[in-house]
Amino acid sequence: MIDLKTRIALIPEFPKPGILFYDISPLLADGAAWRQAVDQLAERIAAYKPDLLVGIESRGFLAAAPLAHTLGIGFAMIRKRGKLPGDLMGHDYALEYGTDRVEIQREAVKPGQRVIVLDDLLATGGTMAAAIALLRLCGAEVAAAGFLIELGFLSGRERLDVPIEALMRFD
After folding, report:
1. Could you list the residue range(s) of the whole structural domain that residue 134 is in?
2. pLDDT digits (tens, 9 = 90+) for 11-44
3. Which of 46, 51, 78, 168 is the most buried (most CB within 10 A)?
4. End-to-end CA distance of the chain
């Protein structure tokens, strides 16, 4: 077993001063480690019996798409405003300074579908909470949220009202 935490690069002062960025690029570049991460997360996610996996732009796509393939189920994308074509559903949410919006194609999720939302990292939980709210507006049953990394010291899980699966936790 590979210690997956050793495949996460800590980049200080990125993308701005005072931020320590948890970079998953080394994990993605190591075939054996990435396979292990996908397999471990797939095992945890399968227990929720999802019909569909939803990835949050953009690094959430990197986790959700191979997991959907591994589990043999569909994959849908939640993106920021203006990034998806067609008939959309959207949800506005508050940021520290202002608001943002997440959107999904209306036909991507069917009412009553059991979905799991994935992102690479759980920090404050704001984007994931917005994604969960959007999926519920679509009529989905959000069974859980999955992450490669959880930053426990930011308490993001406290903002979420679904079970959380994270492969790695940094405190």
Report:
1. 41-170
2. 999 999 999 999 999 999 999 999 999 999 999 9
3. 78
4. 22
